[in-house]
TrEMBL record:
<dbReference type="InterPro" id="IPR000757">
    <property type="entry name" value="Beta-glucanase-like"/>
</dbReference>
<feature type="region of interest" description="Disordered">
    <location>
        <begin position="181"/>
        <end position="220"/>
    </location>
</feature>
<dbReference type="Pfam" id="PF00942">
    <property type="entry name" value="CBM_3"/>
</dbReference>
<keyword id="KW-0732">Signal</keyword>
<dbReference type="InterPro" id="IPR013320">
    <property type="entry name" value="ConA-like_dom_sf"/>
</dbReference>
<feature type="compositionally biased region" description="Pro residues">
    <location>
        <begin position="196"/>
        <end position="206"/>
    </location>
</feature>
<dbReference type="InterPro" id="IPR008965">
    <property type="entry name" value="CBM2/CBM3_carb-bd_dom_sf"/>
</dbReference>
<feature type="domain" description="CBM3">
    <location>
        <begin position="37"/>
        <end position="191"/>
    </location>
</feature>
<feature type="signal peptide">
    <location>
        <begin position="1"/>
        <end position="28"/>
    </location>
</feature>
<protein>
    <submittedName>
        <fullName>Cellulose binding domain-containing protein</fullName>
    </submittedName>
</protein>
<dbReference type="InterPro" id="IPR036966">
    <property type="entry name" value="CBM3_sf"/>
</dbReference>
<feature type="domain" description="GH16">
    <location>
        <begin position="189"/>
        <end position="451"/>
    </location>
</feature>
<dbReference type="InterPro" id="IPR001956">
    <property type="entry name" value="CBM3"/>
</dbReference>
Amino acid sequence: MHRPTAPRRWRVAAAAAVAMATGTTGLAALTGTASAAGESVTVQYRTSAGSATADQSEPWLKVRNTGNAPLQLSAVKVRYYFKADSAGAAYRFACSWAVKGCAHITGTFGTLARPTATADRYLDIGFTAGAGSLAPGADTGDMQLRFHRADWQTLTQSDDYSFSASRTTYADWPKVTAQVSGSTVWGTAPEGNDPTDPPTDPPTDPPAGGQSLFDDFNYSNSGDPRISANGWSVRSNSGGPGVPGATWAPENVTFAASGGNSVMNLRTSTAGTPETTKHTEVLTKAMKFKNGTYAARVRFSDAPVSGPDGDRLVQTFFTINDLKAPMADDYAEYDFEYLPNGGWGEPSNILYTTSWETYNPDPWQAVNQHTESRQSHAGWHDLVLTIDNSTIKYYVDGQLFGSHDAAYLPERPMSINFNQWLIDLAGQTSTTPRSYDQQVDYVLHVKDQVLTPAQVTAKLNAYRAAGTTFEDTVPAG
Ligand SMILES: [Ca+2]
Ligand SMILES: [Ca+2]
Ligand SMILES: [Ca+2]
């Protein structure tokens, strides 16, 4: 089986642009000084479909650089907030015409963790590097954008936060927001969208039985034959994601006792060149995991073990299968991705959960839904993902983090993966060696059962009470 090339590149264009916008050091992005340096924009809006209900919502936008320096458009994101027609409704973005060229404009949908009466979703408008820059005082010109329901049913836009039926000519519009390199510089978001909702399910004992994979990662080293016997592959083959020319280093995967328990350590290291960059990944050889519960205890880190900090690092726990053709519907991927030093246009630490319908690698087009939290997640975390026939849910430390829609459910089984890699080498340009650790205590999958985080913990404790460090009763996919 070929390992799927993990397509976590959906903001790569933005990341590249941040590097350009901040010169050779990239330090402005890392220290969040992009807007402090005077970058500012205004966003003008009009609609060309002003009715309360419509086949498509048509937000037309112009972004103007009101700062005093050229502005790389790929550092800019504009967010349009709306109320979904139903909890399971899915949407598609399209660009009808744009002065900058529709090929240089991206649209991805997300879910607000704290919905309001007029907003539970958003559309993020972004730009590829090919969109170029805006001189001081210049604007993008017309961007004639639209979105519609995936099933082409009529949508209601009169209840949408960012919609205004009366705006039929361009004027400044503060009910969309704009960010430059991750800092909000325009508009007002709907109130209260912290991604922290309390769990609603009471703790109970886990359901009996259930075909399961459990591994406490009690191994001696990356060459331990039990790793392969238990269905894991420690990656050594080259390729993406991340720094081109980097290697994937099995020897950087180690195991150590920690408080009577064993943890797996993924160490990613670099001395600032592709040749010295070593990524790490551990994944199941089989793609046989689909609906049910996925859980892992993972330790993210904000700082290197040694050497200078600042690299644009991605620390992950995810499931994925292979893209059989561009935009193939039967692709599936569900990610926890922590960026301790920013990247993908973000200036600082951010945790993403992302559910993928599909994507097109070239030209880049993503069909996904994501939820994000801009704060440090350094330390140990209990990560839980559940998938049933209607919803995808992500939990962090027992709290619901994101809930994604039926349109993003998996069509085929997937592998389970952990990896740590560098997006690029622009975050820290030193050639002093440094390394970063991501640790994994255990992984659990229970086929076709949606467990609460408390039920996951109970099942983990039952395995440990029984002295079981590995079990795999999940049938081949
Ligand atoms: Ca609506
Ligand atoms: Ca363990
Ligand atoms: Ca899909």
